[in-house]
Amino acid sequence: MTLQEKIADLRTSALEKLPKIADEKTLNDFRVSVLGKKGELTDILKGMKDLSNEERPKLGALANEFRDEITSLLESKKSEIEATIIAKKLENETLDVTLPGKKVAKGNRHILTQTTEEIEDIFLGMGYQIVDGYEVETDYYNFERMNLPKDHPARDMQDTFYITSDILLRTHTSPVQARTMDAHDFTKGPLKMISPGRVYRRDTDDATHSHQFHQIEGLVIDENIAMSDLKGTLDTLVKKMFGAERKIRLRPSYFPFTEPSVEADISCFKCGGKGCNVCKMTGWIEVLGAGMVHPNVLEMAGIDSTKYSGFAFGLGQERIAMLRYGINDIRGFYLGDARMSEQFK
Ligand code: FA5
């Protein structure tokens, strides 16, 4: 058989095999076996050394033609295989829009957050601004500016966690009073703010006490602010939070930063004032501390206490939420137990 015939044979068998190839590996093996260094074409061309000078270039041209033809066929086969792979992938990944969707479990805001936001809404409606304070406070703002000098006995009621002797975790939201008084420009109008936030005390945890809890501070300062303004404001808050039939009662109390000071009770929402287990048979439930801002507190902020007066109050959100929803242990708020949180969707 001549070399030309051998190439013609190789071509015939290659053209027969090529269309049957269906994957990249077989295609590559085929390329190596036909056109590779140790492949069939190379083998045939080894016989060229025995050809005459006229025949050699002719055979060379024939071999090149064959190589070009097979190379271009290999390339189109390769694209064909790739296209099949992509088509198969697309087929497998088809999205069936008729399948039922996967349900994402929806969370809800913590009941303390919801309570805070509800109180914020009530005060926004009365023209108050909402102010942020610092949880890490100075002794100066937490105590001294609240009329509690270093050796004041009332400091014992609010022992806290100290970072240095002058820096501490605030025991109440009242330092925000002093900070907003310092910043307020009274030529632009009265100061009306509430400030919600977390506070800390060195209290032993039990069903009604926590070493960290939440308070909302309220403060109004203007000319001619009277105790009746405080009572009317608290009355509005209590009626909106606990219902229109709730009454409010102010009892004398003591805070170094208010004079006079009061403790505010609401008529029991469970028994309506007759006496029950919620109100410990008194008909009233204590919800917050309040009073008229002490002249010393105004003067320390550079506010003329003969011209301006104000009222302030501080309530504990946990206390409000516990009363409202019949929660009997304060620790339930902080444990992160979904069975508790999910009740308040
Ligand atoms: C104060 O903290 C005053 N700063 C409130 C105030 C502000 C009075 C402005 C006058 C003017 P008192 O220590 O009573 O007051 O705390 C206020 C509320 O925080 C309490 O009514 C109670 O609801 C809540 N509270 C106090 N201690 C704890 C505690 N350990 N755990 C949970 N709640 C507490």
Automatic annotation (TrEMBL):
Pfam families reported in the protein's UniProt record: Phe_tRNA-synt_N (PF02912), tRNA-synt_2d (PF01409)
Localization in the cell: Cytoplasm
Coiled-coil regions listed: none
Class in the EC hierarchy, top level: ligase
Catalytic reactions of this protein: tRNA(Phe) + L-phenylalanine + ATP = L-phenylalanyl-tRNA(Phe) + AMP + diphosphate + H(+)
GO cellular component, one term: cytoplasm
EC number of the protein: 6.1.1.20
All copies of domain Aminoacyl-transfer RNA synthetases class-II family profile, residue ranges: 119-323
Record PROSITE patterns: AA_TRNA_LIGASE_II
GO biological process: phenylalanyl-tRNA aminoacylation
Stored InterPro entries: aa-tRNA-synth_II, aa-tRNA-synth_II/BPL/LPL, Phe-tRNA-synth_IIc_asu, Phe-tRNA_ligase_II_N, Phe_tRNA_ligase_alpha1_bac, Phenylalanyl-tRNA_Synthase, tRNA-bd_arm
Keywords of the record: Aminoacyl-tRNA synthetase, ATP-binding, Cytoplasm, Ligase, Magnesium, Metal-binding, Nucleotide-binding, Protein biosynthesis
Top-rank lineage group of the source organism: Bacteria
GO MF annotation terms: ATP binding; catalytic activity, acting on a protein; magnesium ion binding; phenylalanine-tRNA ligase activity; transferase activity; tRNA binding
Keyword Lipid biosynthesis: no
Co-factor binding comment: Binds 2 magnesium ions per tetramer.
Cofactor(s) required for function per UniProt: Mg(2+)
Binding site for Mg(2+): E259
Gene3D superfamilies named among the record's database cross-references: Bira Bifunctional Protein, Domain 2
Subunit structure: Tetramer of two alpha and two beta subunits.
Similarity section: Belongs to the class-II aminoacyl-tRNA synthetase family. Phe-tRNA synthetase alpha subunit type 1 subfamily.
Name of the molecule in the record: Phenylalanine--tRNA ligase alpha subunit
